[in-house]
Amino acid sequence: MSARYPDTSRMHLRGLILIAGEIVAAYWPMRTFVHHNPLHGLEDLHFDDAARRAHELLGGRGYLSNARYRNYLRAGRIRPVQADAALAPLALDKKATLGPRTVTHGEVLRAHLLHGITAPAPESIDTLEAVVARHPDRGRLRALAAHVAPALAQPDDARERIRGAADAERASIGRSSTLAAWCDRMLLTDLTERINREMIKWCEAFLDEGHAAWPMPGRERGFFGAWRWLAGQEWSLCGIAGHRQKLETLPERPDDALLDSLEALGIPLDAWPDYLSRHLAALPGWAGFIKWRADQTEYEWQQVYPADLLQYLAMRIWYERELVRKACRDSLGIDGNLSSLAADMD
């Protein structure tokens, strides 16, 4: 198939994939026990920023729970002076007066760390109705409330709240979540799990290093080429209707195929790095191994059967494109892209 995108677009895409791939640490064949830093690709960030980024995309926790820290304080494993030193950079120069006592922000932080300060449980606070019910003039209070209610009514308030929630949800799609994840959350689908299962199947087959009893044929075509050829021969590919014809018309170059899918989903260009990172973070082990393989130009298996993150993403986001399209048409009667979802929310 002839070129569909200029080389400048392809080069730009490859650069964004390098940035997106920082979230996954390279994994290599570990034939002996070795420590592996899962935040290796984020080492240029401050630890707190790296832990926050990893939690957002990978789901891991970089810190213990507050309850665990409190237990360590009570057990003496953490001394109060150490806790004060850790809280000092976080304390603001603010104070509050409670009766005769002035409480600093640092003291509030320390009290929360040592003992925990949370909002009172709803059942511990009397509701307004409960207060009125005990009042001796409750009849007059209710009559007065009924009299002034029409003047205080704000019929547009609920609409504004709904619009605010819809605007926030719309802004998050394609930025803080993939379209597949949005469908899973809002339409109760299992698209992310289905995509993961497909990618695991193809990664296991293609990245085998001589252990499989029946090696995957066509691997000399490269990861994307072998998948495109073999997937077109499957009887049913993840329930995607007309998958053979769609794969035949898919660009032969993985960068063109990925550009096609990102444009079909309507992902804004400035959101591509984070969007691609979220897809890589869905299966960080496989993505990390492919990342390592792509960097090993002298590695025998990579020389014979080349794979890289571009090919991986071209395959993965093609599945998302097709499955999101079907889910949105079946459930909402609209196209499965960002602009259609935004218009539907409006």
Q: What this model shows, in words?
A:
The chain is an all-alpha fold and 346 residues long. A hairpin with a 2-residue loop joins strand 1 (95-98) and strand 2. It has helices at 7-20, 47-58, 66-75, 80-87, 105-115, 128-134, 138-152, 155-172, 179-186, 191-206, 223-231, 243-249, 254-265, 272-282, 284-295, 300-304, 309-331, 338-345; strands spanning 95-98, 101-104. The longest helix has 23 residues, at 309-331. The chain is extended. The chain has 18 helices and 2 strands. Helix 1 packs across helix 14 (272-282), helix 11 (223-231) packs parallel to helix 17 (309-331) and helix 13 (254-265) runs parallel beside helix 17 (309-331). The mean pLDDT is 86. Helices cover 60% and strands 2% of the residues. It has a two-stranded antiparallel ribbon.
Please name the defining characteristics of this protein.
single chain, 346 residues, mainly alpha, 2 strands, 2% strand, extended
Strand content: under 5%
Give the topology string: H per helix, E per strand. HHHHEEHHHHHHHHHHHHHH
Terminal Cα separation, in Å? 39 Å
Structural class determined from secondary elements: mainly alpha
Major β-sheet strand ordering: 1-2
Assign a percent range to the helix content. Answer: 55-70%
Number of helices: 18
Concise synopsis of the structure shown:
60% of the residues lie in helices and 2% in strands. It is mainly α and 346 residues long. It has a two-stranded antiparallel sheet.
